[in-house]
């Protein structure tokens, strides 16, 4: 005997999120509004509510005609992300939110307040295909690319939360870093659409300064070259994690395809064209990549290849559950930083945030996905 299943189980999963105003260029937005049977100028009104007012609530859009307003807004600004869980720590200066997309996919973003800025760490993919062994997201593989609007929506929701005092006193979201789940340059087209919209002046976009947006990559060389050609002022961060190919092959498996030498050539090209210093990310892992000689090698390599156009960010490893790896002891970390600096390369240690809320890349989604 067959019983009909409740709709929630029988509804087909749709991999592609519904198209949203934020997926489209200004011309595309006007066309989509026209398809919804409204005059094209309403695209600007909607964009102003969404990007400047940070709302998708039809009730607040009193400049749109009341009849059919809710349906119109729902068509152009469909709900893309619903909050599953939000956790605060660091005395309220850090807030991590887990979101569920229309198809049940889980993604995370982390909002952080510093004395001089408010930064959001966004996800660009659900899961990640790069398989770095120390990263929680890397363990589950890639589920799917996020749409441009799903990325922008994370920023819109964070800007709204910051404005409304989610981190204590109301503030303005000033920085966006693509250091959440996923490899942004493996989702190039949508990430670029999102970046362009994040930096566009309102009402076309969110009005965050290009210089305050960071795209972080494992080192997909052709995509770095492509990004260079876009001539944007965004910061490029490269996750190096080792100064030698033998070790990097194991920590960042894509190194088997593009070696350190090629990655640094691409990074140099980016720095030369944009005039911006490249950040080198180095997750310091106890007894794996933290030897003094590796500090010397990293410093001399970067000094030779990038000179003053580089800054090293040492990230104390945030251990993932079940991993055999740990952060380096403080004296080892200090010595590593000293060695890099001794070669004439700027080097600082990333302040670790959100350790007690599983904020290391992908940890919260992994817990909730496993029903914890
Ligand atoms: N895929 C991109 C962006 C994602 S993560 C990239 O690899 O750059 C942002 C940074 O966090 C990367 O440098 C990544 O290697 C690092 N990271 C991931 N897991 C970590 C962990 N458990 N501890 C410390 N850093 C980690």
**How many β strands by DSSP?**
12
CATH topology of the largest domain: TIM Barrel
- The proportion of residues in beta strands is 15-25%
Give the strand order of the largest sheet, numbering strands 1, 2, ... along the chain: 1-2-3-4-7-8-9-10-11-12
pLDDT averaged over residues: 91
Uncertain segments are 1-12
CATH homologous superfamily (4th level) name of the largest domain = Aldolase class I
Largest sheet: 10 strands, mixed
Q: What's the alpha carbon Rg, rounded to whole Å?
A: 22 Å
Determine the N-to-C terminus distance: 34 Å
Q: What portion of residues is helical?
A: 25-40%
Distinct small molecules bound, one entry per kind: S-adenosyl-L-homocysteine
**What structural class do helix, strand and pairing data support?**
alpha/beta
What is the CATH C level class of the largest domain, in words? Answer: Alpha Beta
SSE pattern: HHHHEEEEEHEHEHEHEHHEHEHEH
Number of domains: 2
* Global geometry: elongated
Which architecture name of the largest domain does CATH use? Answer: Alpha-Beta Barrel
Instruction: Tell me the number of helical segments per DSSP (H or I, 4 or more residues long).
Output: 13
Concise structural overview:
With 372 residues, this protein is an alpha/beta fold. The protein has helices at 7-10, 26-35, 42-52, 69-76, 136-139, 148-163, 188-199, 221-230, 245-251, 260-274, 292-306, 330-342, 363-369, and strands at 81-89, 94-101, 106-114, 117-121, 125-127, 142-145, 175-178, 213-217, 235-239, 278-284, 310-316, 346-349.
